Amino acid sequence: MTGMVAAGTGIGAVIAAPLANYIISLFDWRISYIIVGGATMLVTVVASQFLKRDPVDMGQLPYGHDERIVSHRNSSGMSLQSAMATPQFWLFFTSLVFFGILMFALMVHLIPHASDIGISPAASANLMAVLGVLVIAGRLFLGAAGDKFDSRLVFAFCFIGLALILFWLIYINALWQLLIFAALFGFLQGGCGVQEPPLAARLFGIRSHGVILGTVSIGFTLGGTIGPILAGYLFDIAGNYQTVFIVLGIAGLLAFVLAILLKPVVSQE
Description:
By secondary structure, the protein is mainly alpha-helical.
């Protein structure tokens, strides 16, 4: 279910790039930002009015559950304060820092890298489209895999996969190789991101799931702030992206190690 909902961001990525290019062709980029931002705000506000709370809060029960089970599930788990006192919270938090670093650094610097190896801007634009489509696939397929197997294992699998393809990126010098990379990166990125909500619930329960997920996700935002700046700094020093990709691959390996150390700290009855 999370994968189906989160696939919307991938769909947005596929639609947004050509739409933004078209709007920029009609206006300048400043007016285009206002149009895109205003449309996004309008659609979000309108759509949010149709969202409903938990069935229990509406006096209903989820399909297939009785009142006793629903009550137990809504009360089980840890508070944010208790969760933050556990090593597992900080392992999860730090893994998301590394995820944010490698994801946003790559998203910002992939097109400049493609230009550096002689790929035209028009051809490079296809990379983002491919990446966006495979984000959708990753969230749907790996989201289902997390339900069937273990979200912790899928989380770790995505990190080791991201690390390996980032190391491979050092040797890529052709458009077809970059397209394969973008597809793999999008698939694994989407699969990694979609594990966060169920993994937070599995680790800490659902009593304070929203605030715990929101707090631990600050790690991802922090990494997203650091990643592009760090990548740009390393590029300025080395004069190429090879060092950048090595560092990002190491970030993926560290996130993998942290992910395999995650264990639930609440009862899974």
